[in-house]
Amino acid sequence: MMAGQANGEAAEHPEQVEEHQPPAEGVPFPRAVRSFVTRAGRVTTGQARALADLGPRYIVAYDPGTPDLVAACATSAQAQGKTYEKTVLEIGFGMGAATAHIAGLQPDTLFIGCEVHEPGVGALLKSMGEQNLDNIRILQHDAVEVLAKMIAPASLDGIHVFFPDPWHKKRHNKRRLLQAPFVRELATRLKPGGYIHCATDWEPYAQQMLEVLGAEPLLANSAEGYAAKPEYRPLTKFELRGLKLGHGVWDLVFRKV
Ligand SMILES: C[S@@+](CC[C@H](N)C(=O)[O-])C[C@H]1O[C@@H](n2cnc3c(N)ncnc32)[C@H](O)[C@@H]1O
């Protein structure tokens, strides 16, 4: 079971989808290989209403003609009289529970969330409306492309990747998001001193994260190995249930040197 399912995501598991095309050498994600599959999932009435009412204000269109999304967001926020101290990118926010929680704790930080699953986008917008949150922008697009085309070098204060799809089966491991070439790209987008915080409940993926983050010369581990869970990351219902059953969760926090 995966983290997102406890939040009401579609039951269809991405790893049920076969993928036959091999990845090209040295390319983070050749277009034949993506870290996600487009899942069926019903948009609820509340999510649809949030998409219609709040989407126009908070959803940012994917546009490779905007090479510095952080600056563009800062400019449009300033036009509305708001200045943010920091900008954090979250990749794969699922239903957005952690995103909304952290955005509520850190009102002076702008959170840019990428998620491809439309019910998740609707769910986060709904939470934003309910919690009166203004400091989140959403891209409903592949984060790999967003990072490559829209995030300028050294523009982010932080990156969150919570419970990325683990792609358990050996033949699917190549679809994991956190691999060396992509980690290098992530690191280049951080400001010096900026951080990347990853969490997973799948130990082999935790080990892979530790290995690839640890091997990236632009990053330094903030802990000896795995980190203690930072207070801002909430425990999801799924995670609490897993912890009660004795399942592990691993957090990793690395800083740009
Ligand atoms: C296992 S879920 C975890 C969701 C959430 N972070 C949580 O902790 O509940 C992983 C999410 O990442 C999204 N995802 C995977 N690859 C992505 C990509 N390249 N760009 C945007 N979203 C992606 C999936 O759609 C899915 O919702």
Automatic annotation (TrEMBL):
Catalytic activity: guanosine(46) in tRNA + S-adenosyl-L-methionine = N(7)-methylguanosine(46) in tRNA + S-adenosyl-L-homocysteine
GO function terms (MF aspect): tRNA (guanine(46)-N7)-methyltransferase activity
Amino-acid positions noted as binding substrate in the UniProt annotation, renumbered to this chain: K169, D201, T236, K237, F238, E239
InterPro entries: SAM-dependent_MTases_sf (IPR029063), tRNA_(Gua-N-7)_MeTrfase_Trmb (IPR003358), tRNA_methyltr_TrmB_bact (IPR055361)
Biased composition regions of type Basic and acidic residues, renumbered to the chain: 10-22
Residue positions binding S-adenosyl-L-methionine: E90, E115, D142, D165
Region (Disordered): 1-29
Pfam families: Methyltransf_4
Region (Interaction with RNA): 171-176
Associated pathway: tRNA modification; N(7)-methylguanine-tRNA biosynthesis
Keywords: Methyltransferase, S-adenosyl-L-methionine, Transferase, tRNA processing
Gene3D superfamilies: Vaccinia Virus protein VP39 (3.40.50.150)
Keyword hit for Magnesium: no
E.C. number(s) listed in UniProt: 2.1.1.33
Function noted in UniProt: Catalyzes the formation of N(7)-methylguanine at position 46 (m7G46) in tRNA.
Family, similarity comment: Belongs to the class I-like SAM-binding methyltransferase superfamily. TrmB family.
PANTHER family (UniProt xref): 3-DEOXY-D-MANNO-OCTULOSONIC-ACID TRANSFERASE/TRNA GUANINE-N 7 - -METHYLTRANSFERASE (PTHR23417), PENTACOTRIPEPTIDE-REPEAT REGION OF PRORP DOMAIN-CONTAINING PROTEIN (PTHR23417:SF14)
Name assigned to this protein: tRNA (guanine-N(7)-)-methyltransferase
Organism per entry: Ottowia thiooxydans
